[in-house]
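Question thread 4412

I'm putting together a teaching handout and wanted feedback from people who do this every day. The idea is simple: show students a protein as raw sequence, then show them the structure tokens that encode its fold, then repeat with a second protein so they can compare. Below is the first pair exactly as I plan to print it.
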Amino acid sequence: MSEEDENENTTPEGEEPQVDADSLADEVAGAVDEAADGDALADEWAAAMEESGDDGDSGDDDVQPAPMEEFDSSANNIPQGDSGTPELDVILDIPVSISMEVGNTQIAIRNLLQLNQGSVIELDRLAGEPLDVLVNGTLIAHGEVVMVNDKFGIRLTDVISQSERIQRLK
């Protein structure tokens, strides 16, 4: 390569190389013509891969596939009940967090720091609207507050269907 050719291909750091618009247009037109034929495109990719020296191997000759255990569909590890259905007793003792949401709002930290005893925070719900019942942060039902033996409780008025819960997760 001559010194003049080397100067054409290198550019000072931080500058974009100068490209002749006519030659670029010719290259694009040629590429579009080749792309029209699927085999030509595949050949172009093969030539580029060959040129780069990448034959699809990572270069590690000592790489071996990991042994995979074969699973028998009849021999699974899920405990089965008498009727052949999975036994759900294994999950019944898993603890979950259940909470009731009266409403929510967003306030600036400046306003949050000014709150004190007797402050009133306006929520996004109207008085008398149902509360949200959340299990592990997922809405599962709506309900209303009731008093039971001088303690608060909640009466479920509407349970969210399983398909709705799945849609809300997405």
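The second pair follows. I'd like the answer to focus on this one:
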Amino acid sequence: MAAAFYIVLRYTWPVARKPAARNIDYRALADFRYEIRRFLNFSEQAARASGIEPQQHQALLAIKGLPRESKATVGTLAERLQIRHHSAVELTNRLARKGWMRRSRGRTDRREVLLHLTPRGENLLARLSLSHRSELRTAGPRLIASLRTAAAHHRRPRPATR
């Protein structure tokens, strides 16, 4: 009986490798996320204690804090809050019903709806902003430190062991 021999040749194509997961500083990312959540939790509680929902507070702040060259429109508000246009419309409706915001038509384009804070909305936002600035004096250094750590390129790789 004759013996059969098989020779198997195997070639693998080089594949671009992703950075090793061990170079990702998960602790730094988690700490940064934690500090953000702590501040956002403070903000949400402060808003509710003032009789306004957190997203409504964010909307007032977004409108008041727009750069001078930007128009406060529903579309701009939707972009600043990262929500859908129809959600921004409903949000402005609720703010207008509460007397914190009013709408007006654009001068050159009457289809354009401009958003304005009322004096009542301005006062509410000013009170909330004072408490937020006070909180940032405490939380700010922690946020900055955690951001610096998380934004660093990566941890130094460990020496290879054989």
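Top answer:
Good format. For the second protein you could add a caption like this: The CA atoms of residues 36 and 143 lie 7 Å apart. The longest strand covers residues 101-105.
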